[in-house]
Amino acid sequence: MTTSFTRPVAVTPLGGPSVLVEIGGARFLVDPTFDLAGDYPIGSRVLTKTTDAVVGREQVGAVDAVLLSHDQHPDNLDHGGREYLKTAPLVLTTTLAAGRLDAVCRGLESWETATVGEVTVTAVPAQHGPDGTEALTGPVVGFVLSAAGAPTVYVSGDNASLAVVHRVAERFPDVDVAVLFAGAARTPLIDGFLTLTSAEASEAAQLLGSPRVLPVHTDGWAHFTEDATAFRAAFERAGIAGLLVEAVPGRRTVL
Prior knowledge:
Strand content: 25-35%
Strand order of the largest sheet: 8-7-6-3-2-1-15
CATH superfamily: Ribonuclease Z/Hydroxyacylglutathione hydrolase-like
Shape: globular
């Protein structure tokens, strides 16, 4: 970021897809996951969490809202995350999730906005897999956060489409911080990746105008086929490793 801001943002990765974002005087928790390692049956499939959560619900504390990309997959919302939602004053998520979660929810369609304190939250598209697989993977939403004097933050959610990133960049040409979900997630359900590969994430960063990038959703689950090391290597190959924010669970970085 080259612009001088009077109100910086802070990001704290918590492991997996979970991130605490502080912007404009408000605190947002993205995709809460707090469980120990274990198996999660989904229909005929099993998703396996390979590492325990590093940061617990009590350490996160109160937030102004939860930004939930989707509720149908446990790697983005596990048992502990569901319990946390019950304590949140507001959960912004897909319209489908809002209708079935036991929490105070507001469902947002793409490009719809909500105001939380001084922060404008815009729901943006996300595509959880290759073209034509939406009926199998279910709806997902991303978010753009903006506030006066603060960097603009893009949270991709479980998006696998660079075309979607291009659409977001067209609407928001001044993204300063991008929280990119990656990991090249893959399951037998779909012939293709459910989230960005590391190489695609480096392309996404360039489409967004080279903001600072916090990689998430790269470690902790068996169906993630590329880890944080692969993510960094892809950015190094592209010559943009300097954009990366180190994703150490529990470490707060001010941007």
